[in-house]
Amino acid sequence: MKIEILEFVSGAKQAQGVVVIIDVFRAFSVACYAFDSGAVQYIAVGDPKSAFELKKRYSNSVLVGEREERKIEGFDFGNSPTEILKANLKGKTVIHTTTAGTSGLVNAKKASVLLSGSLVNADAIVKYIEAAKPEHVSLVAMGYRAETTAEEDILCAHLIAERLNGNKPDFQKQLADLKTGSGSRFFNPNNIEFSPPTDFFLCTMIDRFDFVLRAERRYDGHISLIKTDV
């Protein structure tokens, strides 16, 4: 099994085989919490305009997303697992747009199998890939705003790669270091309304969920994530 680690939208575009689009802070952690909170359908879109258009077609839906980390005007929730954890999404369709994660899904057009990736379901991702026995795995770390390397996404990619290679890495120190690194923004008092400290802890709970979110391209060009138990 060949495993490669790529970054950003450019990496998503060239990724092939089983592709895992990784966005730990916060898109694909949010997606896991949304399904755990009762959502029955998840649709990733590339821009807010498309999200608003979709909401007109799905009456029992909520809009989730961010630009510049903040909740988009007119949306129901920001890109915050803390918000989603407190929400009752039972029976709801989640329509989600973010700067990095969802754009990675939309651009991974060479993938034979496409998954979203985060620390909270890392082990499930590993088990899913092991069962599939692919020749090629592409782990795409989307980074901060899809422009700057994000320590948490690279950490997640290496954790998955190490486990696929049969190793049992201990990344507790690296996780702790995130508090003063790329995760420090969650502890800035100026950000508490849209990036609270609880988001950091919810996004770094390794292996909290035992399911993967498999992506399928829809007829309208958007992406559905399908919850698949492992």
Structure report:
- It contains nine helices and ten strands.
- Helix 1 packs parallel to helix 5 (101-107) and helix 6 crosses helix 7.
- The protein has a single domain (2-229), classed as putative 2-phosphosulfolactate phosphatase, CATH 3.90.1560.10.
- The model has no long low-confidence stretch (mean pLDDT 95).
- The protein is an alpha/beta fold and 230 residues long.
- Strands 1-8-2-7-9-10-3-6-4-5 form a ten-stranded mixed sheet, with helices on both faces.
- The chain is globular.
- Helices cover 34% and strands 25% of the residues.
* Net shape: globular
How many β strands by DSSP?
10
| Helix content, binned percent | 25-40%
Low confidence ranges: none
The major pleated sheet works out as: 10 strands, mixed
CATH fold assignment: putative 2-phosphosulfolactate phosphatase
Q: At the fourth CATH level, what is the homologous superfamily?
A: ComB-like
Calculate the mean pLDDT score and round it.
95
CATH level 1 name? Alpha Beta
> What is the second-level CATH architecture?
Alpha-Beta Complex
